[in-house]
Every structure is written in structure tokens, then in C-alpha cells.
Amino acid sequence: MAGDVMCQLGGRRLMLTTFLVSIFFCAVHGFIYGAPPDSCGNPVTFHTEALNETHVGQFLAQNASTSKYKLVVEKVSYHNKTFGKRKQSDIIRVTLKAAPGDFFRGFFIQATRDNYPLDSQDRPAYGTFRSIDSNSQPRLCRAAVGQVGGITHTGNNNKTEVSVDFILPVGCNLGDIQFVATVVKTYSQYWVDVRSDPVSPIGFQGQRSLLCRLYYDPFNQRLQQQVLQVLRRLQMANVRQPAQPSIGAGRAQVNRPVGPLASQGLQQG
């Protein structure tokens, strides 16, 4: 298999890599209905073009200085929101905008730690996203620590602006966070690492809970083991406590009480 080389083809930069012809037919088509599920770990898109029967060229990302796109956040801080004794998630409206007269077709947006390198193997992803119109759809990145995800396009129509809602995990201080996007204009033109201004926490006190610490540092194996231990204890506590029958609406119902750790467990530091 030949090594990678750089070349110019019709004024476009390409990375040449030898592939089986059959692989090319799978890779050459763009993701017109949204970024693939594995975009969370590596949000850099993969667009290719056949050069001959055995070689495929990979289009490289455009220089960041030529980007005509920006990620705008509606506020510069997020809060530890409490109503009575109940904590609620804070929500941030995020908007991807093209410069006047320009457009984009595809995108993938994530939330991560402020100024964290995009290509870092331990780059965390935070929170979940919610669509507010038909131009976007959420992507689940990691289910083990809550519902952590990104958001992507639903079609390859021209867009000048797309807004989405970002939902923070309840009661979690994640430090300064930043939104980062990959933006696709045409199959051969795309930009990576388009970033928003940072958003800072306000109103959080004390240490992070165990679950919030794992949100903040999801690749920490020690924290992963601690969370698993708490979940096992919760499961064992539920199994040990017998089901308690109760009468409701004219028929017997069976209620299984939640173990004593359920109200503490993952929410304790």
C-alpha cells in the first residue's frame, strides 16, 4: 500500500492514499443526511475523490483564516439553577452563521472544554443538544455518562444560519466550555475547529459530585470504576428490598422501593 503524498489537482489540495476500489465507492459520497455516529471522537469530515483505478484523494480542510462562519452563543455564562429543592438544567442557544452572501450545507457541533485541542485523544464532550427546527438532528456520542452528544444537519440544502439548544447536565460545574463546529460548504470545501466564545460557570459551590466529576473527566478510569461501584450498590440495594404491594385505582399495584443510595449515590462527591 503506497504511502501518503501531497499533490495539486485542478487547484485543489489532496492527500493521496492507495485504497481498494470497492472502498472508494463507499467513501466518496458525502453525508448529506448528517454526520456519522463516530463524529464525536473525530469531527473532521472525510471527503474523497477518485484519481484513478487504485488511488483516492482526500480533500483537506480549508485554512482556518479563510472561514466565513462563526458560532455565536446567546450568553457568556451558565448557572446552577435551583427552583425550590429541585435543580434544573441550564440551556444555551447556539447559532452557526455564515457571512453575508455565503452559505453552508453540512455541520457538526459539539461542546467541549475551553481551548482544548480538537485532535486530543482525551478531549471531552459535554451535554446534549436539541433541535429547534428541521435543519438539525442530535447525535448521541456517549450514553454511559448521561446522554452526551453533538448535533448535525438533516440535509444538504444551502443554509445561512442554524440555531440549536444546548442542555447542560443538571447541577454540574464543567468549568469554561466552548462550542466547536465542522462546517461543510461543498464536498471539497470544509472547515474544522470553528469555535465560539467560551461560556463560564456561575453560582456553583463546593466540590463536584461523583457523576459531575466523570462528566468533566470522562476518560478517568478511576472515576469510571467509582461510578460502576455505586451503580452496583444501588442495584444490590434494590434487589434486597422486597416489592411492596399497594392499592390504587381499584386494583393492586406493586411498587419496588428505590434503594437508600438512590437519593445520594452518584450525586455525592
UniProtKB/TrEMBL annotation:
Q: Does the keyword Phosphoprotein apply?
A: no
Q: Which InterPro entries match?
A: Ferric-chelate_Red/DefProt, Reeler_dom, Reeler_sf
Q: Which residues form the Reelin domain?
A: 41-218
Q: Where in the cell is it found?
A: Secreted
Q: Does the keyword Magnesium apply?
A: no
Domain of life of the native organism = Eukaryota
GO CC annotations, alphabetized? extracellular region; membrane
Q: Name one GO biological process term.
A: innate immune response
Coarse class of the primary localization is secreted
Signal sequence interval, chain numbering: 1-30
Key words of the record: Antibiotic, Antimicrobial, Immunity, Innate immunity, Secreted, Signal
Q: What CDD domains does this protein map onto?
A: Reeler
To which protein family does this belong?
A: Belongs to the insect defense protein family.
Protein name, entry field: Ferric-chelate reductase 1
Q: What is the organism of origin for this protein?
A: Mizuhopecten yessoensis
